[in-house]
Each structure stands twice: as C-alpha cells, then as structure tokens.
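Reopening: structure tokens for the zinc ion complex, inputs below.
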Amino acid sequence: MSTFSGKIQEISHISVDRFDENNLTSEAYFLSHCHYDHMVGLHTHRFQNNLLENNKYLYASEISCAILKLLYPSLKNNIKILDIYTPTALLLKGGNISVLPIPAGHCPGSVMFLFETNIRILYTGDYRINKNDIKKLKAFYDSYKQVKQIETIYLDTTFFLKSYRKFPKREESLEELCKIIKGWTDKGKHFSIKLFTSAKYGYEYMFNEIYKKTGMPVHVNREVFNFYSTIPEMDKSVTLDCNATQIHCSCGISYQYVCDKALNSKIRTIKVSAFRWTQDNLEDGFSSNSSETYYVCYATHASYEEGVELLKFLKPKSVEICVKHEDPLTNLEIAKLIEEVLDEFRSVAEVNVKHKLFETEENVSDESLTVVEEETIFNGFDIGILDSPPRNTWRSSTELQMKAGSSLNNNSVRIHSIQIQSTESVNDIIVQQSLDVVELESDINTEAPPNKKLK
Ligand SMILES: [Zn+2]
Ligand SMILES: [Zn+2]
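Re-run output (same inputs, fresh job):
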C-alpha cells in the first residue's frame, strides 16, 4: 500500500497520488490510478474547493478520468485527460514541466508518470511490467534511441524483497483460477464460487478473463458495478443479476461479502492474493487448497526480479521507496537491496550524465510534444520542456553536474513513510474504503502459508 507523501522532491510545486496537508499548496495534481491508497484527500471539501476556486487541474489517464468524473461530478471541469505515450507541457509558476504517461500494467488506466524539467523523474505508482517488456517501452528512449537518463525513480516497492523473487504471469494465474472455478461450477447449477480479493477494485483483467474462459460474468454489488461500468471492456464481465452466473465476488453488503444466493448454494471459496506467496510457497505451484478453500497467486505489483530489471534498465541515480512496510527491518532490507542494484551501475551512470551535458541545442526535436489549453501552450523549446534529452536551459551545466554528483554520493535511497490519516468525517465513504483495503491486506499478509498442493 502506497505511503508516498505526494511530493516529488525535485518538482515540489506538483503533487502525485496524495491530496491532503501540504499538497494543498501544489499547482497541479496527478493521479496514477484509481485505487484509494493513491487518492488520500481527494474526496475532501478542502481539496475539491482548492481545485475549483484556484482553477487548478487534476491530470490522469482517460480511464482514470472517467472514474473520477463518476465519483466527483462537481470536479468534471478540473479533471484533464493525459494521453498515453504523449508528452504534455504545463506552464506552472513554480517551473514548467512536461509529463509523459506510460502504461503501468497494474489495473486499467494505471500509468507511470515520466516528469521532465531540467532533469527526469519517473514515478511508477503501482506497476507490474514483465521483465522482457520493460525494454520494449518506447517512452524510455529519447529521439536518439538512447535510454533516457533518469535522475530519480519513485518506486513501487510492495514486493521488492528476495522472498518475492518471482510471480507467475497473470495469464498463468488466471488459467489456474479458471480451472479451479470450472472444476466446481461444472458439477451443477447449485455449485457457486465465492471469489475473495484483497482489495475492492483492480480485478478488471481477472474478471474479463473469467468471462472469456468460463462464459460467466461475476456477480458484484451496485457500488462495484458502477465503478466497473466506467470501463467499456467490462460490459459483459460483471453483472447485477445474481441468477445470471455461478461466480460471486463483492456482491454482498460490502466487497468482502457475497449475496444470499451464493451463501445458499454449495460454495467453493477462492482467495486470490500475492502476499502469502513467498518463494518457498511457490515452489509447489501457484495454487493450493484446504478442503473447499483455494488460494491462487495473482500479482498486480512487480516482483523483486521485475523491480530489479526496471532499475538495471533505467539506471537511476537515486530511488525513492514509495511503499513502506510495517516492519522496519523489511524497509531496511528493501533499501539495502536497492542500494546493491544501484551500486552495480553507478560508475556507468556518471559517464552518461557527462555525455548529456555536452549536447547542443540543434539536436532538439519538437515532433512529439503535445500541449494542452491556451495558457499552457509553449512556443518552441526555449524554456526547456523536452521529450528528447534535457537541456541545461534553466540551470548551468555546473549546477546540473553538481546535483547529479551529490545524489550519487549519498541519500540515494529514501523511504516515504506517510501513513493514511484523515481529519475529515469518519463517516466519509472514501476514507472507509481506504481503511478496508488496509485492514484486509494486512490480514492476508499474516495468513499461514498454503498447506496443500492442488496438482
Ligand atoms: Zn493500486
Ligand atoms: Zn452474488
């Protein structure tokens, strides 16, 4: 669960995935995806009035914007779509920036943000990109087909631990899941599946695959149905009709419960999660069961190996840890593991920085820049917002070199430790929803290991 404070240290006049406290003074806001641990403060009157009264904007992907407009219709004129793979320039008082959204593979509409000022910062949000796919992402290359030099990565460290070295691909997990579902529902109409997930949303891909492989939609409650109805691809894979399917998930009074129809039939429970699936447990396969309760490994966050691959490919000078775990020793271990990876390529990174500093203005290309709204339009590149390598227009080469040098030497791994808190009404539904996620994920984290192999 994200513990990121919202502030990108190098671009302190914007906020990402956090909308309370000192983020209220930011000039522009960015949301990587619509999961509640990334939306803290967004529901408050304080934040919403701040947007409306000061003509500020919240930027997100097209799908996230559709969900946001459904949740907060009064903000519809202050929510702006960022097109995937398209750099967008924003003129801001605190300094102009370019932002490039990159698909994050975590849930529909989830993106990473590549911010560019005179340096580049990658904020991953929650992500899962297969090891082999990272180098295929065009957004990571500049117009010279060189891998872009990134100063700092704000990293999803949910599973950056050797105990979570590898996860099965999502396709493999879903193949297994559907086999377990059909092994029960094929017995007859009164055999129902209770699907138990570790969070309320984020299972769009799973529900779609279940529909494709079993021909049955998933029964969900009205709230969950409304959420998924913002995603056109989901039309057939969720239903409000409990009689239209034998598969039930989040169809009771809250997302952890199922409807009476399911409860009154013969139930097989399937729990999908990644936390319980450490490397030892995965040695025997990625599903297990105890009687009619089944466990399937399904990860929507990067494994340790996938995280290492991203760092090795982009070679950032520093990393910010965006998911702080409850156990301080776990956080130290993550910091140490990241430090080890950075150590491997540090000397090479230094050479790259020096190379960039000697590039000339003539190399600048403006082909891929897209601008939004009148007040943010740039006339050319004299202010240094680029998709091609950054120029030292705003700072002297010496300043840039000093900054690069200083971050190489110390504090290259920092941990964000802001906890979810709210001073707003405890009855507020969104706060409640985010607490639901916290409680449930910590439960799963402490479950006993699976004790029986399926196959
Ligand atoms: Zn998420
Ligand atoms: Zn149901």
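The chain has two domains: 9-164+303-433, 170-298. The domain at 170-298 is CATH 3.40.50.12650 (Rossmann fold). Marking as resolved unless the reporter disagrees.
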